[in-house]
């Protein structure tokens, strides 16, 4: 059985960093993982090791832009369309990897997750190849500093989940940037969000955070936005699809927790042949007969 993890999320959420840490950790645990880069604009020089499979070997964003006159976003769309037309290339590249985790580092253009058909089509192709697939959606911890931005992140995660319809894990990345010590005066005083209790309201999104208008700010809330916020509150209350696992890459425990959720979601290893004690016994007694 082969397994693929799509690492998704908005620009700069830490997808590429997480993908590399994931593989480093698998390798350290005597498991194997291979990196697949699906970002045609990725700068390989900024990372310490090369992907095993790289969309840039098929098509390069610069070429699409220079030769066809696209801007960066049109170029990305072109690259993905080209990939879907050339699935035999990906199939061939994937052919050499058996019984492994494939960590697929995706680009950060948010429209890719909300309404383009590329990722659903890619997932269909992976499933056709018998590869069990799940997605990890990263939102960075800085989103918690502005509750409106944060709920924008929650809604984008929801729309991506609905678009893809595969097992799904939401992760709050870069938790090392959040002060975890509740007694730390600077952490709490800065914006009031960084205390443990408050963090919990974000990891398991509490819609009341936006139901109550900004307290200490002088602006008068626009009643139309207030009504919109109420509608969003109701949506999240009635469909609590999104909760976040915190990820602090400076802590091995934290990374392990996220990986074990991924293993569980993918039912990793459940189809592997169990080691039969019977076979061992037969071997042991073989010479005695
Ligand atoms: N403090 C902190 N910084 C991080 C962490 N992960 C990533 N970063 C930083 O965040 C920036 C973006 O990280 P990337 O891993 O390139 O993010 P990405 O989601 O792949 O970005 P795009 O591919 O451009 O969408 C870089 O400057 C990283 O060094 C983290 O866990 N903690
Ligand atoms: Mg990246």
UniProtKB/TrEMBL annotation:
Recorded hits in SUPFAM superfamilies, A to Z, give: P-loop containing nucleoside triphosphate hydrolases
- The chain's coiled-coil residues are none
The annotated regions of Basic and acidic residues compositional bias extend over 275-289
Sorted alphabetically, the keyword list is: GTP-binding, Hydrolase, Nucleotide-binding
**Looking at the record's lineage, which domain of life comes first?**
Eukaryota
Xref: Pfam families = ATP_bind_1 (PF03029)
Q: Where is this region: Disordered?
A: 266-289
InterPro entries from the entry? Gpn, Gpn3, P-loop_NTPase
An example of a GO molecular function for this protein is: GTPase activity
Give the function comment from the record.
Small GTPase required for proper nuclear import of RNA polymerase II and III (RNAPII and RNAPIII). May act at an RNAP assembly step prior to nuclear import.
Q: Quaternary state and partners of this protein?
A: Heterodimers with GPN1 or GPN2. Binds to RNA polymerase II (RNAPII).
- Family according to the record: Belongs to the GPN-loop GTPase family.
| Protein name from the UniProt record | GPN-loop GTPase 3
Q: Which organism is it from?
A: Marasmius oreades
């Amino acid at each position: 059985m082969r397994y693929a993890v799509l690492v998704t999320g908005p620009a700069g959420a830490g997808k590429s960093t997480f993908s590399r840490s994931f593989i480093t950790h698998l390798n350290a645990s005597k498991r194997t993982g291979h990196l697949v880069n699906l970002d045609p604009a990725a700068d390989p020089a900024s990372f310490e090791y090369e992907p095993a499979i790289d969309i840039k070997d098929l098509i390069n964003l610069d070429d699409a832009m220079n030769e066809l006159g696209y801007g960066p976003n049109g170029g990305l769309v072109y690259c993905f369309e080209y990939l879907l037309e050339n699935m035999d290339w990906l199939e061939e590249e994937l052919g050499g990897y058996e019984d492994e985790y494939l960590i697929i580092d995706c680009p950060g253009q948010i429209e890719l997750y909300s309404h383009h058909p590329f990722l659903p089509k890619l997932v269909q192709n992976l499933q056709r190849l018998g590869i069990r697939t799940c997605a990890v959606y990263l939102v960075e911890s800085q989103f918690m500093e502005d509750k409106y931005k944060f709920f924008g992140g929650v809604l984008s995660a929801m729309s991506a989940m609905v678009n893809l319809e595969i097992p799904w894990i939401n992760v709050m990345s870069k938790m090392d940037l959040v002060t975890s010590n509740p007694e730390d005066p600077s952490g709490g005083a800065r914006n009031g969000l960084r205390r443990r209790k408050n963090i919990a309201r974000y990891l398991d999104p509490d819609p009341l955070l936006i139901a109550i208008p900004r307290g200490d700010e002088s602006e008068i809330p626009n009643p139309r936005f207030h009504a919109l916020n109420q509608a969003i509150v109701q949506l999240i209350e009635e469909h609590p699809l999104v909760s976040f696992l915190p990820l602090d890459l400076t802590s091995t425990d934290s990374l392990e927790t996220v990986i074990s959720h991924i293993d569980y979601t993918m039912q990793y290893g459940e189809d592997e042949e169990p080691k039969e004690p019977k076979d061992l016994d037969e071997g042991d007694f073989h010479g005695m007969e």
